[in-house]
Amino acid sequence: MSTQQPNFIEEILMVLAVLESGSDSTVAALLHRVTAREVDERLLTERLATVAAVEVHGNSLSLDATVAATRREALLERDFLHFRRLHEAALAILAPQLHGNPSSLEQQWLRVFTRLAEALLNRDTVALRQLTETWEHVALSDEAIPHYTFYRALAAFWSGNYAQTLILIDAVLAAPTVALPLRSRAINVTALCHYYQGQWQQALDGYRHSLALAQRLADKVQEGKVRLNMGVIYYELHDYAEAEAQLVAAETLFRAANATTWLASVHHELALIYRQQGQWQHALAYFQRCIDHRLAEEADELVGMALNNVGEIWLLQENLPKAREAFQQALARTQTPTNRIDVLTNIGLYHEVGGEATAAQQRYAEAMALVAQTERREMAPLLHYRLGTVALAHDAQDIAWTHWLHGIELIEANREPMHEEALKISLLGRWQQIYEAMVALAVDRGEFAEALAYTEQARARAFLERITASQNRANLAAQQPWTVPQIQARLSGETALISYFATGQPGTNAALLANLPATSTAIRRALLPPARLFAFIITNSTVHAVKLPVDLEQLQAQYFHRATGRLRGVTVLPGRPLPSVRRWQMLGRQLLMPLTPYLMGMRHLCLIPHGPLHYLPLHALVDVDQLTQVAGTTVSYAPSASILCQTEQAAPLPAHQAATAEEPSALAIGVNAEGLAHAEAEATWIAQLLHGESLTGTAATATQVLAALGEYRLLHFSCHGHFRQRDPMQSALQLHDGELTADMLLRSASIVADLVTLSACDTGLNDLHPGDELMGLTRAFLGSGARSLLVSLWPVHEVPTRLLMEHFYSQWQRGVTKAMALRLAQQFVATLDFTQLNERLA
After folding, report:
1. How confident is the model at residue 362 (pLDDT cuts 50, 70, 90)?
2. According to DSSP H, which parts of 217-299 are helical?
3. Largest CA distance in the chain
C-alpha cells in the first residue's frame, strides 16, 4: 500500500489539473472513469489534506492554477494519449451537469474542450473532427456556441471542406458577443480558406485584418500564426524575400512565447524557402528539426508534410530511391485530403521523371479527384499542367491541349477579384510554364493566331490593367488582353507588329534551377517547357509565327554583363565607334532577317520584345529598310500588343489641342547638375520651339512638376536619370530638390500627354518581373496615362543627346510622325562632323 499511495495521489492531482476544480463526487467519477478504481469520495479530502497546492472548501476541491497548467503541459509532452483520455472523460462527466447550472460550469467545460481541441489540432485532425461531432448537441448558451463552432470550422477546414468552413466561420463572426481574440483567429481561418481556394487577394486581405487585431490585443502567438500564414502565401507567390521576412518575424514571436509547436511550423516553411533557393543542406537541416519535433509530439500528419518536402529535395537531385522512400512514408502518415494532394502530386512527378507515364497519370488523377473533393482550387492548374506534359510526351496533343486550356481558364478566373498589382504579377509569374507550353503547342499545330492570343494572356497583364485603370476604364472587359481580330483592326495596311515570345525561361525558379546538379536533366525537363524563341508577325490580315535559332541563355551570357544585366559594349563617349556593332549585326541576322518574307512593303514596324530582348536595341541590329524593302521604314516598341492598342485608343485628350501663347501644349523640364551642363538650355530651346513652357533650375522641384504633369500634351525631361535594378520602382529623374521616382509617379501623377520624352540616362531600362512585367520608369509614365515614351537604353552623353532632341522636335513640328522624326534625328546625329557640331552648339 505504501508504494501505491504516491501514485494514487499523482493520479488525483492529474485529474484535478484537467478539471481545475470540482466537487469530490466529480473528481471521484473522473478518477474512476480513467483508472477503473472505485474511490470513496469521503477519502479524497483526507488524502489531499497535506498537498499544499490543493484547496478544500467543503466538498469542493481545486488545484493551484499554475501547478495545474504545469502538470497538463508535462502530461501533454510525455503521454498525449493519456492527456486525451483524461480530457475526453472530463467532457463526458461535465456535459450532463450543464443543464440549469451556473455559467462557471459551462466555462469549465469549454476550457477542457478547448485544451483538447488545440492539442488535436496539431496532432490528429481526424480526431478533432470526431470530437466536434461528439459534442454537436451539447447544451451550450448563446454566448458559448461561437467558441464551440469555431472548432467545428477548424475540423471542417482540415477535412478540406472549405465551403462548410466559411459558413461556420461566418456564424462565429456574426455572433454579437464574440471576443476579439476569437474574432482574430476566425478571420485568419477565413483567409486560409481563400488561400487554399486560390483566392489570393481575399486571403491577404484577411491576414492583414487578423494581424491588426492580434497586434491590438498584444497576442504575440496569434500574431506569429498570422505572419506564418502570410509567409506561406508570399512563398507560393515566389516573393521569397517577403516570405522570409514574415517567417523570421513569426520565429521571433514564437521563441519569445516559447511556442515550440508553432516554431516547428516556421522551420518547415523556412526550409521550403531554402530549398527553392537551391540551399539543399540548409533546407534538409530545417526539415529534420521540424520532423524531430513533430515525432516527439506524435503529430503524424505534420511529420508526413515535412517528409513530403524532403522527398522533393531528393527528387530535385534525382536521387530517386531516397525520394521514393520519403514519399512513401509521407503518404502513409498523411490522412487529410489537403495534404495528400501535395504528396500525390509529388509522387506523380517522381513517376514522370522516372519515365513511368501511366503511374504518373494515375497519381495526378488521384490528386485531382481530391482537389474536386476539397475545393483546393489553387492546385488544379498545376495538376492540369502536369497531366498535359505527360500526355504531350506521348504525342497526345489533343489531351495536352485540353488540360492546359482548363488550367489557363482556372488561372484567369482567379485573377478577377485582385486589386493589388504585386499580387497580380506574382500569380501569373507562378503559372508562366502553362502559358509557355500552350504557345509552343499552338505554334507546332500551325494555330498561329491562337498562339499569339496566349502570348498576350501571358505577358504584362498587370501593366495592361494599370494603363486601363489610368484611362478610367474600370470594367473587367476593358482590362482583358485584346483579341487577335481586335489587334488587327487597329493596324494600317503598312504596319506590322513583331511580337517575340520565349519559352523555357526559369523565371521565379531561377535560383532553384541554377543549383540543380548537372545530372538532374530529367527533372529539369519536367519543370520547364523546352527553351524556344518565337517571333509572331501580325498585319491587318495575317498572323505568322517563326521559330528563331536563338538560345536566350547563350544570348544573355554573350551580350550582357552577368552582375548588372546591362548590355555589353556600350560607350558614352562621342566620336567612338561601338565595339559590339559586328556582334550585334550577327544577332540581328538571327532575330530579324528570318522575318523578311512577311515584312515586305511595310512602312512601320512595332517591336514587342520578350524577356532579355527588352534590353536590346533591336532596330539597330539590322538595316530595317532591308527587312521591308521600303526606304524610310520607321520603328517603335511596345510591352505588348494589347498595351499598344490600349494606349492608342485612349479617349481624346481635353487639354491643349493647339499651341498658342495663351494655352501652351508642352512643358519642358531641365535641371543642370554635375556632368550635365546642357539640360536647362535643352529644355528652354524645346519650350520656345513648341510655344510651350519650361521649368528649369530651382523651379523644377518635385512638387511643381507633379502638379503640372496633368496639364500638357507633351512633357520633356532633360536631367540625370537613375535606374535601380534592386528596387526598380525607385528609379528616378533627378530634379532640383531631389528625385522624382517611378513609385511617386504611380502614386501621385495623372498624365494626359501624347508623348513624354525622358532625355536622360537609362530611362528605358526596366527590371523584368515574372509575366514579362516591366518595372521602372516605363511602367510609371505609361501607367500614369502617357500614351507614348521616348527613352534611352543606356547612359547617353548630353551633347549628342541635346542635338538629337532638338532635331527630333524640329522634324515632328513639320508634321512627320514621332517614329519618323526620331529616325531622321538619329540619322542627323550619326552624320554630324566636328565642325557641324560646334556650329550647332554656338
Report:
1. very high
2. 220-236, 240-257, 260-276, 280-297
3. 118
Cα 616–620–624 angle (5° rounding)?
125
CB 271 within 8 Å of CB 249: no
Nearest in space to 421 (alpha carbons), one of 459, 449, 474, 462: 462
Same domain? 641 vs 699: no
Count other C-beta atoms under 10 Å from residue 476's C-beta: 11
Same domain, residue pair 644 and 677: no
| The total number of structural domains that make up the chain | 2
Confidence of residue 599 (pLDDT cuts 50, 70, 90): very high
Strand partners, 774: 768
HEC sequence for 585-634: HHHHHHHCHHHHHHCCCCCEEEEECCHHHHHCCHHHCCCHHHHHCCCCCE
Which pLDDT value is given to residue 417?
A: 60
The predicted structure's pLDDT at residue 473: 57
The answer to whether position 489 is within a domain reads yes
Cell of 65: 492554477
| Cβ contacts of 152 within 8 Å, gap of 6 or more | 132, 136, 168
Position 645 pLDDT exceeds 90: yes
At residue 654, the pLDDT reads 38
Rounded Cα distance, 269 and 236, in Å: 11
Could you tell me if 530 and 564 lie in one domain?
yes
**Domain match, 684 and 613 both:** no
- The Cα–Cα gap between 295 and 3 comes to 33
In the structure, what pLDDT confidence band is assigned to residue 278 with cuts at 50, 70 and 90? Answer: confident
- Flag whether pLDDT at 689 surpasses 80: yes
Cell of 302: 505534420
Pairing assessment for the beta strands 732-735 and 721-722 based on DSSP bridges: antiparallel
Residue 237 has pLDDT above 90, yes or no: no
Looking at residue 483, what DSSP letter applies?
Answer: P
Q: From edge to edge, which strands make up the β-sheet containing 738-741?
A: 721-722, 732-735, 738-741
Distance of alpha carbon 314 from alpha carbon 326, whole angstroms: 9
- Domain interval for residue 570: 418-648
Is residue 47 one of the residues assigned to a domain?
A: no
Cβ neighbours for 623, distance < 8 A, ≥ 6 positions apart: none
- Whether 502 is in a domain gets the answer yes
Task: Work out whether strand 693-696 and strand 773-775 pair parallel, antiparallel, or are unpaired.
Answer: unpaired
Q: Chain-centre distance of CA 177, in angstroms?
A: 37
Residues 496 and 636 in one domain: yes
pLDDT digits (tens, 9 = 90+) for 422-464: 777 877 778 899 999 999 999 999 999 999 999 999 999 999 9
The pLDDT of residue 841: 66
CA distances from 828 to 605, 804, 821 (A): 21, 8, 10
Q: Sort strands 54-57 and 21-23 into parallel, antiparallel or unpaired.
A: unpaired
Distance CA(86)–CA(495), nearest Å, equals: 80
Q: Is 343 in contact with 304 (CB distance < 8 Å)? A: yes
Main-chain dihedrals φ then ψ at residue 450, nearest 5 degrees = -65, -40
Q: Which residues of 428-443 are buried (b: 16+ CB within 10 A; e: fewer)?
A: bbbbbbbbbbbbbbbb
User: Three-state SS for 749?
Assistant: coil
Which 3 state secondary structure label does DSSP give 6? helix
Pairing of strands 789-790, 755-759: parallel
* Residue that is last in its domain, among 602, 619, 648: 648
Classify 718 as helix, strand or coil. strand
Q: Which of 486, 462, 470, 457 is nearest to 647 (CA)?
A: 470
Determine the average pLDDT of the residues in 770-786.
94
Residue 705 and residue 748 in one domain? yes
Residue 85 within any structural domain of the chain = no
Question: Percent of the chain at pLDDT above 70?
Answer: 93
Q: CA 539, CA 692: separation in Å to the nearest integer?
A: 37
CB atoms within 10 A of CB 280: 18
Output phi, psi for 36, to 5 deg. 60, 20
Say yes or no: 542 and 620 in one domain.
yes
Q: Is 611 in the same domain as 499?
A: yes
- Which triple of cell numbers denotes residue 792? 534611352
